[in-house]
Amino acid sequence: MATILVVDDELGIRALLSEILSDEGHTIELAQNAQQARAARERMRPDLVLLDIWMPDVDGVTLLKEWGSSGLLTMPVIMMSGHGTIDTAVEATKFGAMAFLEKPITLQKLLRAVEQALVKTTPRPAAPTSAPAVGMPNPYPRPESLPPMTVGAMPMATAGLAPIAPMPHQGLASEQVFELDRPLREARDAFEKSYFEFHLAKENGSMTRVAEKTGLERTHLYRKLKQLGVDLSRNKRGTGI
Q: Which of 77, 128, 167, 237 gets the highest tally of CB atoms within 10 A of its CB?
C-alpha cells in the first residue's frame, strides 16, 4: 500500500478522504495549507499527493509549480477543486499534475484516479517463472449473478434463515433459504441483511469495497446497515475501516 498526502483546507474533505483511503490500506498524512504540505512532503516523501487548488495562503497550482521548479515533484499529484474549469485542469496538467478531480468527488472516480496514479509510478514486478492459469472463472460472482433468493454467506442468526449444507465445490460458503410465508417487508429485510453480511464477510469488513460491489454510496450504506441491524463490529479489520 502507499503513503498518501491529502492537502485541503476543508476539514470535512480531509476527514472523508482519509477514511476512504485508510480503508483501502493506505497510510494517510493530512495538511490544511501549503506550509503544512511542504513540511509533510519533506518529512514523509509521499507516494502520491491529493492537492486542493483553492487554499487560503498559497493555492494548489502555485505549490505544484514550486515543487516542479525546485525538483521536488518526485511523486504523482492529483489536483482537486470544487470550482475547477477546463483551463485550470489544463494548467495543472501542464505543470506536472497527473489528474484532475472535480468536487464533489465520487468514490469510484477517487479510487480509480489513485489506483492509476500509483500503478504508473510503481515498477512492474519480474515475470513469474510459471505463467498463471488463463481463463479461470471468477470465484466471487457479482451480486446480480447469484441465484434468485439465495446468497452464499457465513453462518447467521437472522430469523427466518435456515442454512443448507455446503455443496462440495463451495468450500466454506453455504446457501441460505428464505421463508416466503411471511410479510413482504420482513422477508425483504431478512434477505437484505444476509446480502450485506455476505459482502461484508467477503470483503473483510471494507465498507469501501462493499459500497462498490453493492452500488451504494457509503452514507446510504451505513444507514442501510444500521436500519437492518447488521453488526459492523465483527466485520471490521483490525483497528477499523
A: 77
Question: Any idea where the domains of the chain sit in the sequence?
Answer: 3-121, 143-235
* CATH of region 3-121, choose from 3.40.50.2300, 1.10.10.200, 2.60.120.260, 3.10.20.90: 3.40.50.2300
Residue 138 to residue 67: CA distance in whole angstroms: 43
User: Cell digits for 225?
Assistant: 446497515
First to last CA, the chain: 15
Q: Which three cell numbers stand for residue 106?
A: 465520487
* Structural contact between residues 191 and 143, judged by C-beta atoms closer than 8 angstroms: no
164-220 confidence digits (pLDDT tens): 333 343 333 444 555 666 787 777 778 788 888 888 888 888 888 888 888 888 777
β-strand 27-31 against 99-102: which pairing, if any? unpaired
Specify whether domain 143-235 bears CATH 1.10.10.60.
yes
Eight-class DSSP state of 148: T
Count CA atoms within 13 Å of residue 87 on its CB side: 0
Instruction: Tell me how crowded residue 224 is: count the other CB atoms within 10 A of its CB.
Output: 15
3-class SS shares of the chain: helix, strand, coil, % to 5: 45, 15, 45
To the nearest 10 degrees (0 to 180), the angle between helices 86-94 and 60-69 is 20
Degrees to nearest 5, angle at CA 8 with 45 and 35 = 60
